[in-house]
């Protein structure tokens, strides 16, 4: 049974977002002990895999049934779904009620982008 394009797109975007989150933020955990140039090179190396997964995800979604706006808001939902556990579990940031409010705002955006 073939996997629906929307599921393929969401799965690939989820995986690419894990790479993106680590590329953008993981270096902050050792920001005081590592040189900036090393953080930049490591982030670019990780970001390569993000793009190698994200570009096909967007092509699959766009060529099947998702509009450009729907792809973007899907990416934002996934970003929050990946970022919150990353911030709390990996970066040891406190869980905040603001994460809930942000999620509710994004739910509103999802409604408006997908309602048509």
TrEMBL record:
Transmembrane annotation, as ranges: 6-24, 36-53, 73-90, 97-114
Keyword field: Membrane, Transmembrane, Transmembrane helix
Domain of life of the native organism: Bacteria
UniProt xrefs under Pfam families: DMT_6
Record-given protein name: DMT family protein
Organism, scientific name: Stagnimonas aquatica
């Amino acid at each position: 049974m073939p996997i629906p394009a929307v599921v393929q797109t969401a799965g690939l975007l989820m995986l690419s977002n894990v790479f993106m989150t680590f590329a953008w933020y993981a270096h902050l955990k050792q920001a005081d002990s590592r040189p900036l140039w090393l953080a930049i090179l490591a982030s670019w190396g990780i970001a390569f895999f993000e793009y190698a997964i994200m570009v096909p995800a967007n092509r699959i979604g766009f060529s099947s049934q998702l509009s450009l706006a729907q792809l973007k808001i899907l990416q934002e939902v996934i970003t929050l779904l990946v970022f919150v556990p990353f911030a709390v579990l990996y970066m040891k940031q406190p869980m905040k009620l603001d994460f809930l409010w942000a999620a509710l705002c994004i739910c509103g955006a999802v409604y408006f982008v997908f309602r048509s």
